[in-house]
C-alpha cells in the first residue's frame, strides 16, 4: 500500500496507463492530469451534477469517485460526445434550442442526457426530468434543456 | 484532498486482515458517495481506505436464494429500484431506492453503505425494517446474522462489531399476501435528504408494520396486530388513536435545518396515513 496506484483505463476511447495519487478524484484526474476541462468542478458534494461523466455506461458524479476506482473502466466525458471536432446530435440540439445560457452546467446536463438516451432512446418528458434531476442549472434553462433532449432523441432514435 | 493509503483486497479474508491491521484507522469504501465528501472536508481522517468493489463474494448482484432475496455488499440503488424481483416482492424498497439523490448518486450509492452510515434519514432503512431484513456480517469471530431492527443505534453508529464488514442483506420472501408502500417528505427531488421517511406494510393476516425515520436518532419500527389499521372498513376515528400511539416514537431534533420538529411531527401523521392507505390498496390489488 502506498499513496500512488497504477491504473489502466480508457477515456473517450483513448487508453491511459498511469500512476495516480490515490486521493485524486476522477474529476481532478480528468481536468488536471488529462487536461479535459469540459467536465466542470462546482459543488464537490454530488449535488449539482456539473462534474457528471459516464463510467462503464453509467452516469456518475466524478467529484465523488476516486480515479483509482475507474481502473479497468471506460470513461466518457463531454469531449467524447463530439465526433471529428464537430458537435454530436445531442450537442447540436442543445445549441438549436438555446439550452446553454451561461453554459457552466451544460457538460453535465449533456452527459446525463446521453446516459439517459443510452438506456432509453425514446424518453418521455417526465423521464428526462428524472434523469436530469441531479443537474442544477442556475440560469434555469430547464425547459430548453428538456426540449433539446427530446428533439435529439427523435433525431437519433428515429 | 488529505492523504491516505488505498487498499483493494480481492478476498474477504484479505479485507478482514486489513481491518484487523489498521483498526479504527481503516474505513471501508463501497459507493463512496458519502465517504469521498468526508475525505475531502476532513470530517473523516482514515489512514487507509479499503475498497470492497473487487472482493470476490461481495458482488453487486441481487441473488434469489431459497426463501429470500439477497442484496450484495456492493449492490447499488439504481439496480435495486429496477430489479424485477425487488419490484415484485419488495416494492417499497424499490421506491425508497428510487428516492435517493440523483441518478448519478444512485449509480454509485449502495444499500449496504446506506444502512452502515446509519443516517436517521436513510431511505432504505424503513422498508428493510418493515420487510424484516437480516444484515449478514463477517468478522474475526466468523459470520453473524443481525436482524435489521437490532442494527441501528444512531447516526453513524451501528451494532456491527469492530473489525467486521457487511456481506449482504437478506430479505425473506413474504409467506403470504402483503401490501407495502414507501413515501417521504423532501424539499426537492434529485438532491435533498428526507425530512420524514415512512414505510407501511400490511399482510393478509391483518398485521400492519410501520417504519419511519428522520424524526429521531434512528429509524423506528412499530407493529399493530389488532387488525384495525389493516381493515379497509375501519373508520378513521378508530384508526387514529392506534396510529398516534405507533408514531409516538418520533423525537425530531430542533437543530435540523431541513424542517422544524412541529412540521415533521405533523407531516409524519400525514405520511403515515398515506403510506398505510397505499399499502392497503396494494394488498387488495394483489401487488406486494
Task: Provide a descriptive summary of the structure in words.
The complex is a heterodimer of chains A (158) and B (288). Chain A is an alpha+beta fold. Helix content of chain A is 34%, strand content 17%. Chain A contains five helices and five strands. A five-stranded mixed β-sheet of chain A has the order 2-1-5-3-4, covered by helices on one side. In chain A, a hairpin with a 2-residue loop joins strand 3 and strand 4. The longest helix of chain A is centred in the C-terminal third of the chain and has 16 residues. The radius of gyration of chain A is 16 Å and the shape is globular. Chain B is of the alpha+beta class and 288 residues long. Chain B folds into three domains: 47 residues, Uridine Diphospho-n-acetylenolpyruvylglucosamine Reductase, domain 2, CATH 3.30.43; 110 residues, Uridine Diphospho-n-acetylenolpyruvylglucosamine Reductase, domain 3 (2-Layer Sandwich), CATH 3.30.465; 108 residues, 2-Layer Sandwich (Enolase-like, domain 1), CATH 3.30.390. Chain B has a five-stranded antiparallel β-sheet with strand order 4-5-10-6-7, covered by helices on one side. A four-stranded antiparallel β-sheet of chain B has the order 11-12-13-14. In chain B, strands 1-3-2 form a three-stranded parallel β-sheet, with helices on one face. The longest helix of chain B has 25 residues. The chains are: A alpha+beta (158), B alpha+beta (288).
CATH architecture of the largest domain in chain B: 2-Layer Sandwich
| CATH architecture classification of the largest domain in chain A | Roll
Helix-strand makeup class of chain A: alpha+beta
Q: Biggest β-sheet of chain B, characterized?
A: 5 strands, antiparallel
Gross morphology of chain A: globular
Instruction: Please give the most extensive interface between any two protein chains, plus how many residues each contributes.
Output: A-B, 35 and 30 residues
> H/E order of the elements of chain A?
EEHEEEHHHH
> Low-confidence runs of chain B (pLDDT<50, min 5 residues)?
none
How far from one another are the termini of chain B? 46 Å
- Total strand segments of chain B: 14
Task: Kindly name the structural category of chain B.
Answer: alpha+beta
Q: Estimate what percentage of residues of chain B fall within beta strands.
A: 15-25%
The Cα radius of gyration of chain B reads 19 Å
- Mean pLDDT of chain A, to the nearest integer, reads 95
Multimeric organization: heterodimer
The level-1 CATH class of the largest domain in chain B: Alpha Beta
